[in-house]
Specification:
The chain is mainly beta. The chain contains no helices and eleven strands.
Length: about 120
């Protein structure tokens, strides 16, 4: 059975950086895209960034463009999210997802497989 394990979350001050990792194992098909999502208490899960599993293209939510970078290491089956210039509004549980049914989708409903999440807290 497939598994996604996120790591790298933590507490930082505004303006700081964090690098999230997501190790994938046991999946025979990772779909068209992989992505990072986040969910703050009382809000819906939202797409942050997505990467095309074949062409390597990327897309980002407007709120993180220029600050976050998604990448992956195919040799290690690991997805990354480099987060710079963090803001208090970035505080959320961050999830990685695979099995995207469309290229570069930021819609949570388009992904089949999810990790358990890693908490990111940004203080002002």
């Amino acid at each position: 059975q497939g598994q996604l394990v996120e790591s790298g979350g933590g507490s930082v001050q505004a303006g700081g950086s964090l690098r999230l990792s997501c190790a994938a194992s046991g999946y025979t098909y990772s779909g068209l895209s992989m992505g990072w999502f986040r969910q703050a208490p009382g809000t819906e899960r939202e797409g942050v960034a997505s990467i095309d599993n074949y062409g390597g293209g990327t897309t980002y939510a407007d709120s993180v463009k220029g600050r976050f970078t998604i990448s992956k290491d195919n040799s290690k089956n690991t997805l990354f999210l480099q987060m710079n210039s963090l803001k208090p509004e970035d505080t959320a549980m961050y999830y990685c997802a695979t099995g995207g049914m469309r290229y570069l989708s930021l819609a949570p409903g388009q992904y089949r497989n999810w990790g358990q999440g890693t908490q990111v807290t940004v203080s002002s």
